[in-house]
Amino acid sequence: MASETVRPNPADLGIEDLRTHVADEMQRTRDRSIALTSAVDDDELVRQHSPLMSPLVWDLAHVGSQEEIWLVRDVGGRQAVRPDIDDLYDAFQHARADRPALPLLGPTEARNYVTTVRDKVLDLLDRSPLEGRRLVEQAFAFGMIVQHEQQHDETMLATHQLRNGDPVLDDEPPPAAVDADSLPDEVLVPGGPFVMGTSTEPWALDNERPAHEVHVADFRIDTTPVTNGQFLRFLDSGGYDQPRWWSEQGWQYRQRADLRAPLFWKDDGGTWLRRRFGHVEPVALDEPVVHVCFYEAQAYANWAGKRLPTEQEWEKAARFDPRSGRSLRYPWGQADPQQGRANLGQRHLRPAPAGAYPTGAAPCGARQLIGDVWEWTASDFAPYPGFTAFPYREYSEVFFGASHKVLRGGSFGTDVAACRGTFRNWDYPIRRQIFAGFRCARTPDSDELG
Ligand SMILES: [Fe+2]
C-alpha cells in the first residue's frame, strides 16, 4: 500500500514547521480568493448578483479587515492599517442586501488592502512566539483567519452560482462511483456511547468543544447522500403538493416561496435541467441532490418513511470506530482528505456521484460524509455541555437556538482547512443557495435487531 500523507496537525509540529504550515495554508487560501475574484471583470465584482449575497468585492475586503483586526492588531499589537473601514466590513452592522450602497473600497483598493495586510501578517508570523497566550497557542488565531477566508471562498462560490452569465470558473470532473450497485441502501450504527466534539484539535472552533460522551441508540443511516434521481421520485409522486409530508412550518414556507423543485432546476418540457456555474445541463441522476432547504429535506425523509439524522447520529456515523472505541479525526482516520478520499476544495464544482470515494468510507460503511454536499441534520444549533465562547461571543454563541439548523460534513466548495469530523455549520432552515443536501436515517424496528 502506498504511503499516506497525514494532514499536518498543528499540535504535532515544531515552531518552525508550524510557521511554514500556516504560511502555506494562508497562501493556498489566498490563491483561491484571487481566482474567485479575478474570474469576473470589475463591473461584476462590485455588482450584487443576488440580494442574498454581498458583492464579491465586499467579501474580499472583509477577509482583509478581519485579518487586520485579529492578527495585525490583536495578536501583533501593531498599528492599524485602515481603522476607518472597520464598520463597513463588520458583518453585524450591515445586512447583505444593504452592502452595495456602502462606500466600499473599489476593486483595486480592495486588492491593495488585502495585500498590505497579508505582508504585515507574514512578518508577524515570523516573529510571533506562537505560545504564551491562548489566542496564539498552536497558531490558533492564524488558523481561525485561514478558516474564515475559506468560508468566504465558499460564500463567494455560492455568489458565482447565483450569478447569471456564461461560465467563468474552471473545474475538472469528479471521480466515478465505485460498486454503487452493490452498496446497501443503509448501514447500521449500533447503540452505545461515543465521544462527540473535540478538546484536542488545535484549530477547532469554540462550538466544536469540548469533547464529551454522548449515548446514541441504534440507528440506520443512508450509505450515501440522497441523489437527484431519488429526489425526483419524491417530486414526481407529487411530494411538493402534499402537506402530509411537510412540517407545519415547512408547508407554510413551501407555499410562501412557491417551492416546486431544488433551486436552479428548470422543467424543460418534461426534462429537468439545472444551471450550474453558467452551464445548463440535464440533472445528473446519480449525484447527491444539492440546493434544497431543510424543509425540503425533511419532507423527502418523511415521504421515504425515514427522518433526518440528529447531529449526534451524524457525528457517530462519521467518527466512531468500534474497533478502538475512539472517535476519528475524519471518517477514514488521519490521512489527508485530498488524497482521493473526499470531494473538497472547489476542484470539482459539483458533487461526485453517490458511491464515489470508497477509501473515504467511515467504519460503519457510510460514504461521502465529508465533502460533496453539506448535510442537513434534524438538530438545532446548540452549545455542547461545558461550552465557553472563544475568542468572542459573535463567533457562535449569538447563533445558538431554534432558528438555526446544524449542517455537517462540508461540500465540494468547502476547503480541507475548514472541514473535519467535528466541524459544525449552521443556517436558517429556508436556505437554498448553500451547497446543501442530506441523507436520511431511521430507528430500526425491533425485529431488525438480533
Ligand atoms: Fe466573515
UniProtKB/TrEMBL annotation:
Highest taxon of source: Bacteria
HAMAP family, per the entry: EgtB (MF_02035)
Pathway: Amino-acid biosynthesis; ergothioneine biosynthesis
Stated family: Belongs to the EgtB family.
Binding-site residues, gamma-L-glutamyl-L-cysteine: R96, A97, D98, R99, D427, R431
Domain DinB-like as annotated: residue spans: 26-156
MF GO annotations: gamma-glutamyl hercynylcysteine sulfoxide synthase activity; iron ion binding
Domain Sulfatase-modifying factor enzyme-like: 183-442
Record keyword Hydrolase present: no
Transmembrane feature ranges: none
EC annotation from Swiss-Prot or TrEMBL: 1.14.99.50
Protein name from the UniProt record: Hercynine oxygenase
Cofactor: Fe(2+)
Species name: Haloactinomyces albus
Keyword terms of this UniProt record: Iron, Metal-binding, Monooxygenase, Oxidoreductase
Binding site for Fe cation: H62, H148, H152
Coiled-coil intervals, chain numbering: none
Job of this protein: Catalyzes the oxidative sulfurization of hercynine (N-alpha,N-alpha,N-alpha-trimethyl-L-histidine) into hercynyl-gamma-L-glutamyl-L-cysteine sulfoxide, a step in the biosynthesis pathway of ergothioneine.
Phylogenetic classification of the source organism: Bacteria, Bacillati, Actinomycetota, Actinomycetes, Actinopolysporales
Matches recorded under InterPro entries: CTDL_fold, DinB-like, DinB/YfiT-like, EgtB, EgtB_Actinobacteria, Sulfatase_Mod_Factor_Kinase, SUMF_dom, SUMF_sf
Reactions accelerated catalytically: gamma-L-glutamyl-L-cysteine + hercynine + O2 = gamma-L-glutamyl-hercynylcysteine S-oxide + H2O
